Amino acid sequence: MSHQARRRRLEVLRVEELTPTMRRIVLGGPELEADFPFLPLAAADSVRIVVPDEETGELTLPAPGRRDAMSTREYTARRFDAGAGELAIDFVLHAHGPAGRWASTVRAGGLLGVIGPRGSQVFPGDCDDYLLVADETGLPAIERFLEELPAEAVVRVLVLADGPARELGGGGRDADIRWLGAVPVEAVVEAVAAVPIGPGSFVWGAGEAGVMRGLRTHLRQDRTMDAERVSVRGYWREGAAGTIED
After folding, report:
1. CB 115 within 8 A of CB 17
2. Of the candidates 136, 141, 112, which has an alpha carbon nearest to the alpha carbon of residue 38?
């Protein structure tokens, strides 16, 4: 489902500390529309963000239709509240990219450019069970799944990060959540291989591109899962700043 890729200059309303390495930035302002596309079970929908210039502090949005990879990054839309006029985006804090550095220091009153989302992928809500696999970059989408899947759904989560650094949101859902740490692809595949997967299962994954590629191969070839039951994406690549699509 496609959307008009709207361009907005939004103000930071508040900053919420989630963990020592993750912050939630809550945005608002007159350019945040009440019909911002935020669909149930479109848990991985992303916007492109533009941070102010690190030297001048000026915020300049790319021209319409132009995707400037040097100045924009993709981030999951974590939460939208039309009544309050708030959009929340969770950031992993790091020093090797402009978005991570911006999120590490920004305070209320700061500005951020937000473009999109260009489209929505609505995941199925009627599967027998769900397996969610992600590192820190995929936690916002995992939390949306936990909040938005039917209450009776069986959900298993493998987090490729140390923890639990915090309790994952999910509206009190009784999900099976395991924190594996930052393990190599072989360990991820081994952990997934131990999870029962049937013809009615659905698997979603996000994280480092090489790890996700190995996970996808295991699911599609070794476990012979149908393509419509697997959605695995590389959100970033080891040694490269920013996010990617893989």
Report:
1. no
2. 141
Best CA proximity match to 11, nearest among 77, 71, 83, 59:
59
Residue with tokens 């993750």: 22
CA pair distance 154, 152, nearest whole angstrom = 7
- pTM for the model stands at 0.91
Q: What does each C-alpha distance from 138 to 134, 159, 204 come to in angstroms?
A: 5, 9, 10
User: What pLDDT sits at residue 231?
Assistant: 97
Strand pairing category for 230-236 and 176-179: unpaired
Could you tell me if 197 and 223 are in contact, meaning their C-beta atoms sit under 8 angstroms apart? yes
Q: At what angle do helices 209-217 and 185-193 cross, to 10 degrees?
A: 40
What residue has token string 């590192």? 135
* 170 torsion bin: left (phi>0), alpha (psi -120 to 50), beta (else): left
Tell me whether strands 201-208 and 129-134 are parallel, antiparallel or unpaired: parallel
Residue with tokens 């995941």: 123
pLDDT attached to residue 4: 86
What type of residue sits at position 218?
A: H
The reported pLDDT for the residue numbered 70 is 46
What are the mean pLDDT values of the chain's consecutive 10-residue runs (246 residues total)? 92 95 96 97 96 93 68 88 98 88 96 95 96 96 95 95 76 85 95 96 97 97 96 86 44
Q: CB-based burial of residue 42 (10 Å sphere; 0-12 exposed, 13-18 middle, 19+ buried)?
A: buried
**From the CA atom positions of the chain, what is the Rg in Å?**
18
Q: Which of 143, 132, 144 has the alpha carbon at shortest distance from 230?
A: 132
3-class SS of residue 137: helix
Return d(Cα 205, Cα 69) in angstroms, integer: 23
Contacts of 216 by beta carbon, 8 Å cutoff, 6+ apart: 205, 230, 232
